Every structure is written in structure tokens, then in C-alpha cells.
Amino acid sequence: MAKGNNSEYKKMIDKQYKDLMKHCQLHMEEIEKNLPEPKEDLHELLKERGFSRRDFVKWTSAMTAALMLPPIFRPMVAKAAESFSRLPVVWLHFAECTGCSEAFLRSSYPNVDDILLETISLEYHETLMAASGYQAEENLEKAVKDFSGKFICVIEGGLPRGLNGKYLTLGPKGKTGIQVAREVTSKAAAVVCIGSCSAFGNIQSAKPNPTDAVGISKAIGISTVNIAGCPPNSVNFTGTLLHYLMFGSLPALDGLGRPVWAYGKRIHDYCERRPHYDASEFVEEWGDKGALKGWCLYKVGCKGPYTYANCGKVRFNDGISWPIMAGHGCIGCTEPGFWDTMAPLEKPLDEKTYGGGERTVDNIGIALTGAAVAGVAAHAIASGIRHKGDK
Ligand code: FSX
Ligand code: SF4
Ligand code: F3S
Q: Which CATH entry fits the domain spanning 267-375: 1.10.1740.10, 3.30.70.2190, 4.10.480.10, 3.40.190.10?
């Protein structure tokens, strides 16, 4: 419909939002019936940590906007947050540094998202649980059986495929990571890869990659939602789970499985140093006049023009800062293979390969992130949910 006919257009949009709201309400009623009682009282926990009711309301507004929903959805975002601890989660660890869990669980300046994560109903999490050996394996089997088809499988870390997967074995029976991943994900409602290692292989698969490590999707051939970043931002994880709680589906994904609401734009598009880039004011070397003045970090290796993520918008540690604000360029940690493709990390990319100078930023962006751009519109809302035919 042409936007020119304003009142008709508005009516159509209003109807779409009403239908979406109805879908959301019905789904949340289903949750009331089908998922266990909340294990934690979010409001009590927030109070204990010094967050007021007003802080929570402010957070729901910000999260509603971040998820690209109109303000009428604020009460539903609040309700989904209160139901966060109803969603059973099985959290697996493969080849990684555990920095993703650490970043979420040990933040010195926790935000509402970090507190929300504390309420998550972790049926199994190797780093946090007390059990080990046979008991741990039993816990995993029980969680998968009890919540079959209902739990979210969160995965940290990539999977080594070399030696038939034997570079990574787990538990007393010596199962390979690939075996465990297949068994658990086949019973999950959705698979969320947290961090660039499980999403794309990341450092584990950097050259020369002697263990032949890859991301989960590539290792076992399933669709995954990829919360990229090394480590990723807790906001991008909680927002994705809140969407799932509200609508029973995962948010729209780009061609690399990343939620569009969080990874739809480049670091360069949200960067506070962008006016300096446009005015050709660059830091030429560390500690120079430009560095003191907060100029653009492109010439000291910032890969923000080729990196899709919302770091500049949501920041880290309760919004205090983010890499570029702290004075170092983005190293592209949300992009597949960034360790190899974005090297050298403190110099601009090779001009011969990409065409030369900052004039060609857009060419480089297209070359490195073409797959992401081409795929943004291509994925359906539920593309993170296991497809029937997935092996
Ligand atoms: Fe990888 Fe996460 Fe980087 Fe580390 O688990 S994304 S190496 S922060 O810990 O997987
Ligand atoms: Fe910001 Fe980096 Fe872009 Fe410069 S190149 S404007 S520092 S994202
Ligand atoms: Fe990673 Fe760049 Fe953000 S390095 S944390 S994507 S600013």
C-alpha cells in the first residue's frame, strides 16, 4: 500500500500491531499453562541489587525499542522478563575460554539484563553446577528428558572435527562434543549460540586450525541463532530470549544467523567518532594529538566499517563504555573468521586486496560482509528453531 494514503496506511499498521499483540497475549497465556512456575522473583532480586521500580520501567522501554516494537508492547516485555525463570535452559560448553559466561555472570557493574540472567532457569551449566562426572551426565540426561521440546539449548564454544571429534571429549563416558551436541540439540526447542566461537568457530578455528574446529551450525548441520561477539553483549542474549518468551519464535535473523535487531547495522553507523571519520580526522599513531582529541581510529586498525553489531548503542557494563569509547578500534569480533580476515588488528586492511585507502571502506565492507547484507531479509522469523529435516 502506498504510504501516500496516510490514514489507510496507519490503519493497516495499527491492525498489524493489534494482531501481533493478540498473538503475544495468547502465547504468554500458553506459557502460564505449560512452563514451570517462576523460580525467582525478579523484582525482589532487583530490589536487593539497588534497582528501583523506575529503573525497571526505564529498562522495559529501552528493551522494547531495541527489539523494534512500539511502546504498547512495554507491559508484555515486563511480563516476559518476570517469566524469564520459567524458561528451561541447558547450557553446553565446548571449545572456548568461558569468557562469555564470565562476562555475563561476573559483571562489576551489572545492568538489569545481567540481573535477569541471574534468574535464568539453568537445568545444566558445567561452569556453575556443583555436580561432576557421572552425576553431571545424569543431570544432563534428566534435563533433556524432562524438558524435551521445551528447553533452549545455549552453546558456548566451537566443535573440533579432527580425529573424529576426539580433540574434545566430555564426561566419564568420553563422549565427543559432536555427539553431545547432536543428542542435546535434537531435543531442544531452539539452539542459541552464545559467542563467536559457537557461532562461527572464531579463535578456535583461526589458522592453522589443527583441530579442524568450526561453529555448531557447520559442525552438526543445524540452524542456530548466533549471538556473536567475543564475548557478546548480555543485552543481545536477553533480548532474543525475551522475544522467544513473548512470541514463541525467535527474532528475524541475518544471513549469518544473527538477530537483525541487534546486528542489523555496522559499528561505524553507531560510532560517536564518526564525525571525525567524515572530516578525515584520524589517529595516526597511538598517543598522538588525534588520540587525545578522540578522533577516528580507522588508521590504527578500527574494523568498525566492516562489523555488524550494536556495541556503540548498548555499550557494556551498565552502559559505561565500549571498545571505541575506551580508545581502541573495533577488531570485528562479531564477524565470522575475524581473527584471520580482520588481521592485522592494529592496522587498516591490506589496500591491495581491498582497493586502497579509506575511500574504499564501502568496498571492503561489501567484500567482508556481503553474506550478511545479502541475507538480512532472507531469513524467516523462526529460522533459529530446529527445522524438521535438520540432521
Ligand atoms: Fe569464544 Fe566464549 Fe570469545 Fe571466550 O565461551 S566468543 S573465546 S569470550 O568465551 O566462546
Ligand atoms: Fe568509529 Fe571506527 Fe568508524 Fe572511525 S572507523 S568512525 S572509530 S567505527
Ligand atoms: Fe567486538 Fe567491535 Fe563490539 S571488537 S565488542 S564488535 S566494538
A: 4.10.480.10
